[in-house]
Amino acid sequence: MYCDSENLGQGTTLHGYAIKNGFASDISLVNALISMYCKCGDLDAGRLLFEDMPKSQLQGKSIHAFAIRTGILQETHLLTCLISMYARFSNVNLSLLLFEMNTKRDVSLWNAILSVHIQTKHTEKAIAFFCDLLLMGLQPDYITVLSLISAYAQLNSLKLAHSVMAYVIRKGFDKDVVISNALIDLYARCGSIFAARKIFEGLPVKDSVSWSVMINGFGLHGNGRAALELFSEMQFSGVRADDITFSSILSACSHAGLVKQGWLVFNSMLEQGISPKMEHYACMVDLLGRTGNTKEAYGVVEKLPCKPSISLLESLLGACKIHGDVEVAEKICGMLFEMEPENSETYVMLSNIYAAAGRWVDANRVRSGMEGRQLRKEAGFSFLTVG
């Protein structure tokens, strides 16, 4: 294998040949290529190759074993990737073990373990790790601060939002637009749209994300009119709206029940050459469903350029139940039965819709079909705190 810097070009050529001829997914070859890039000093290429591997834990473990054998496990970039990989497969304990085995005082490793705990909703542990990082004398970077803000957003505490804001200002991170955008989102989610707007207005330069998170904040608070006004202001300022911005404004229209404005925004997106994604269609279906326009919502589903997501269909089915649209409910359930034939909740929902409409024969027929498939409704449960 090519393992010196002079032959890196030849190794890269071999890599290209492997891709062209369909060998790039071979695990042994990938291992060798990662080794080649790392030993030739091109750690970024090695890391990129590792991250682009098919998301299989078995292959990931194979890379892990290879790293141990070749002695490159302590390479920081690779170690952070392994920590993140095991977390994605719900193996947080192994992520922690890798973190604790490391002897380097590198903030990127702390960022990785913070991210692991935030993604798994272990918010208090993430904050505890941040405190340990400070006690060790390490200097947080902007990624660390972003992780801290994400953790506080999960706790939904305005008091904690104020504390992280004070820390950000004290350390000078408030000059970073990415940090400021995260703070806008944090305050909006913690209930203070006023504080979110104050940060937004204080930004010397607003990027598309700044506008999007502020628009989304108004949507979260049910103020669709304010979201639309800000969207118009954004367009007037010359900042181009992207697919994330349109997702935010459509969501705001949905929460506020603004059907006409929602369609205008959706059509504006098409006119600007932005192809709608599933989340944009989902917003329109949700908007139309919420306002009782279930047949129009089903029309959107019929015209989808791709297969609808289960969550989109379930959202419309819920709207059909609320507004008593049996006809559309039957069509949606037919699609869900094809996608998830063993999901008892769809049968229960359709049976309940029939029952609410007084169609008891159809309701019993669905229940009988459910029993014939030996499907059971999942029992509900609740927690009771004593003392």
Automatic annotation (TrEMBL):
PPR repeats, residue ranges: 26-60, 106-140, 207-241, 242-276
Pfam families: E_motif, PPR, PPR_2, PPR_3
The entry's keywords: Repeat
Sample GO molecular function, one term: RNA binding
Transmembrane parts of this sequence: none
An example Gene Ontology biological process: RNA modification
Protein name (Swiss-Prot/TrEMBL): Pentacotripeptide-repeat region of PRORP domain-containing protein
Species whose genome carries this gene: Hevea brasiliensis (Para rubber tree)
